[in-house]
Automatic annotation (TrEMBL):
Residues 27-112 form the Pyridoxamine 5'-phosphate oxidase N-terminal domain. Signal peptide: none annotated. Pfam families: PNPOx_N. The lineage of its organism: Bacteria, Bacillati, Actinomycetota, Actinomycetes, Pseudonocardiales. This is Pyridoxamine 5'-phosphate oxidase family protein. The keyword Oxidoreductase applies. SUPFAM superfamilies: FMN-binding split barrel. The keyword RNA-binding does not apply. Keywords: Oxidoreductase.
Length: 163
């Protein structure tokens, strides 16, 4: 599995689209997880890049985090309302690990407070999920044609142009 830093180096086009869409929506993405019965669940989430790592952190004791605790696989999709995908969109695939590092948690909480004023300083995080990527894709319109960029770890991005 691939870290955020390795992903951005290995998939510059997809990571640029992801960061652009992530910023444009105020960090809102849609997270797909696997329910206990094996069916998919789609939930909103605001993933964060902190200390060159991608984090899936949010309100504790939610079903999406119960899903990830049981089955760490996920798909993260940038939120869009543009059916023409004029600004592109991106999907990241992977699994999470729960990082139990209270010093890291507090650095994250301080950074969040400094950036947004939202105060989680001193809080104990139930789960603190780092995303490890196993693949990614993005869609963009280029010269009136849809281009799908696909990436897997250890491979270069490849572009499929749809006519």
């Amino acid at each position: 599995m691939t870290s955020w830093t390795d992903f951005t180096a290995g998939a510059p086009r997809i990571s640029t689209i992801f960061r652009r869409r992530h910023a444009a929506t105020g960090k809102l993405c849609m997270l797909a997880t696997v329910r206990a019965d094996g069916s998919p669940r789609i939930s909103p989430i605001e993933p964060s890049v902190f200390e060159d790592r991608l984090w899936l952190i949010g309100m504790p004791d939610t079903t999406k985090f119960h899903d990830l605790h049981r089955d760490p696989r996920f798909c993260l999709h940038t939120a869009t309302v543009d059916t023409q995908v004029g600004d592109g969109d991106a999907k990241l695939f992977g699994s999470v690990s729960d990082v139990r590092d209270t010093d890291l948690h507090q650095r994250f909480a301080q950074d969040l407070f400094d950036q947004s004023g939202f105060d989680l300083r001193g809080e104990v995080f139930g789960h603190f999920y780092e995303a490890h990527l196993t693949g990614a894709s993005a869609v963009e319109l280029v010269d009136g044609h849809m281009e799908v960029t696909i990436w897997k770890p250890g491979e270069a991005e490849r572009v499929v142009r749809k006519h």
